[in-house]
Amino acid sequence: MKRGWIAVAVVAVVVAIGAAFYVRREKRVVRRPLIPISQVRAPEGVRIRVQVLNATKTRGLARRATMLLRDRGFDVVETGTLSQTNDTTRILDLSGHPDWANRVAQIFAPATVVVRPDSSRYLDIAVVLGNAWRPPAQPFNP
Question: Which candidate among 37, 47, 115, 138 keeps its CA 20 to 30 Å from the CA of 121?
Fold first, then answer.
């Protein structure tokens, strides 16, 4: 009987440590400077590599977001579609540059910034588009 309680206590400690590690790894940051959205651009002389993933059922949303980011000076190196859908757009800060992530979050407002360090250093920012984001109107070209 005593061994059973010890085993339960050990499992509880392991679960608590795992949960603490997960929460520590994925911090949510919501600080954003107040700059008009039309003026939000990538910093001059810096190459910010971005991945855009469409997590909605709207076709072509990743392409529209890619064009918007490239117009603002960001280097979109990869696009794709996720099978699961999200309501909120998430900006993943993979390189530890909160200023860059906040700039991208302003473009895709309402968005949540999540710090998730990635040691591969291939990408700086990942954008997971949600249903709440509405792309700007496209010019009419007949």
Answer: 37
